[in-house]
Amino acid sequence: MIDLFTDITEIANKDGNKVYDIFFGPNHPGMHGNFGYVVDMIGHSIAKARVNAGLLHRGFEKIMETNLWHQNLSLIPRICVVDPDPNEAAYCGAIEKIMGLEIPERAKFIRTITLEMSRMTSHLMGMGSVGGATGLYTVMYLMLADRDRLLDMFEWLTGGRIYHIYNIPGGVRRDLPKGWKEKLYGLMDFFESKLKEYDEILYRHPIIHKRLKGVGVITAEQAKKWGITGPNLRATGVKFDTRKAYPYAAYDQLEFDIPTEKEGDALARANLVRAEFEVTISIIRQALDKLPEGDVNIKLGNPLKFKVPEGEAYAKVESSKGEYGYYIVSTGGIKPYRVSVRGPSLPAGLFLCHKHLPGMRIDDVALWMNTLQICAPDFDR
Q: What predicted TM-score, i.e. pTM, was given to this entire model?
């Protein structure tokens, strides 16, 4: 039997080119943003992987220390472009902890709704990318088109489709516009009806099962050891969700389950996202049903003169990719003294690439990245 890998290696050795580099990204369609991997190849197999952070969103944590508190609200969503709202909520949550603020009940529910909408937009892009990376372009086109419906809602509410800058210390920037709530109810009905189609063209497709099964396996013990959180952790069988364990916004007033998978591979991670679609739809409906009347923020005065009392706090939220946490130190001035961000993509994309990519084929890299839901700007923030 011919061993193609060995034959290619021997030929490469004769030519003096045993190992060659391939730059996987940012020009590769399976890569996101400026981020990329430089992979050492032997034949079609990866021998070694190195991270090229891209230097697009570099130094955000230090930049925040030079900005006014409110100026950072337009900066932090860029730490995860496809799921920006968790960064806003965690940043504001840390400030509110230092100040001892309890935001209005209506603001809590609106913040929950927008966080879940952001989660769904991220999952739609992630699973659409899985379709694109396997040649199932109908999945990619369909899910990105459906995602645009949610972006329309964000634009109506906040004025922005991608960066919303909607959460502010003390609540949210403005109340829901007239007719917005009713439109979102209808949109949740639409997405619930689409789940069957997603199953047919993606989740039950034999190509998806063949390409994802056994790729990038993570055990529960490894996930805990390496700091893997969110859906990637729950795909290993660990039933942990920050929304349940450490409730924030209005999550403690809502009923929802925490789905898990056991296999810990790319297929398990994809199936977990499918279950999370249903959870998100349920959470949004409950929040809309229970949405109280009242104020949506606490008036804190001129944002150019806004000061946070001396102190420090850590606030965390459950994003579509895992736990986002902001540790903020204030000296009582108009700017943060220190800001440190805990992002979920750094351990997944930086540490695991050295564990998983060697031995993979080049065509598995995009699938590996998309099911781990790696958010590129998290690397050089």
A: 0.91
Asked whether residue 62 is domain-assigned, the answer is: no
Q: Residue 204 maps to which CATH number?
A: 1.10.645.10
- Count of domains for the chain: 2
Q: Distance of alpha carbon 189 from its chain centroid, rounded? A: 24
Residue 19: domain span? 4-52
Burial degree of 14 (CB within 10 A; 0-12, 13-18, 19+): exposed
Is 144 in the same domain as 291?
yes
Single-letter amino acid code for the residue at 336: P
Q: Are residues 47 and 125 in the same domain?
A: no
Look up tokens 């990866």; give the residue.
Answer: 46
For residue 203, what are the contacts with CB-CB under 8 A and spacing of at least 6?
Answer: 270, 271, 274
Which residues contact residue 17 at a Cβ distance below 8 angstroms, ignoring those fewer than 6 apart?
none
Going by the DSSP 8-state scheme, the letter that residue 91 receives in this structure is: H
Asked whether residue 371 is domain-assigned, the answer is: yes
pLDDT tens column, 187-212: 999 999 999 999 999 999 999 999 99
Q: Is 172 exposed, middle or buried (0-12, 13-18, 19+ CB in 10 A)?
A: buried
Indicate the SS3 state at residue 137.
helix
**Cβ contact 381:87 at 8 Å:** no
CA dihedral 262, 264, 266, 269 (to 10 degrees): 60
Tokens representing 106? 């209506």
Task: Please check whether residue 184 lies inside any domain of the structure.
Answer: yes
